[in-house]
Amino acid sequence: xxxxxxxxxxxxxxxxxxxxxxxxxxxxxxxxxxxxxxxxxxxxxxxxxxxxxxxxxxxxxxxxxxxxxxxxxxxxxxxxxxxxxxxxxxxxxxxxxxxxxxxxxxxxxxxxxxxxxxxxxxxxxxxxxxxxxxxxxxxxxxxxxxxxxxxxxxxxxxxxxxxxxxxxxxxxxxxxxxxxxxxxxxxxxxxxxxxxxxxxxxxxxxxxxxxxxxxxxxxxxxxxxxxxxxxxxxxxxxxxxxxxxxxxxxxxxxx
Length: 255
Fold this sequence. Notes:
By secondary structure, the chain is of the alpha/beta class.
């Protein structure tokens, strides 16, 4: 399995942080790590890059991180904060003169067709739209010189795609992980895990539950992601147990 780097493009919850319509203390806004775009990561592999979800800020995220190539995309599920940036894939379709491979469940393929019908329509020459080539989700995806172990977790009533590459795992939007998949996650160097807010949530791990699951999995290092504005980065970081920290936009994790 090839080595590479996981880049946290966005570490925020579905509203983003800061959230519109809400006033924040100046000291909160002054900390760059309290500015969180919607959740997404990019796997930079030896021979190609895989984007995991297309946040509404996808263009800004990729430009900020100087990621110039995307070879394929994984869509974990089709809630708005994970797919509304898909239109910006048109830049890569134009660059490569081909469709973008999209790995996701059939039910989510149907959602994408409904949300972006023009991506599947015919247009005269010279009109460029994003073009998607849907692919089934295998147990193991060989792409970009990487071997990705893909599996499903529960996000409330909907399944959400999660992954392990070498000794790094990424699990966003999760309310339950099966015992089988907890076993799959043993021996990790790094776990990136949903911890949306302090109060319990029906569709996400909250702070206390994420701490419990992190301890059960036992990665050497855990980063919490999909974070609301409950979290003041350095205040919360100082309160977390050893080996657990908050993720932030631009975090890079080798694998």
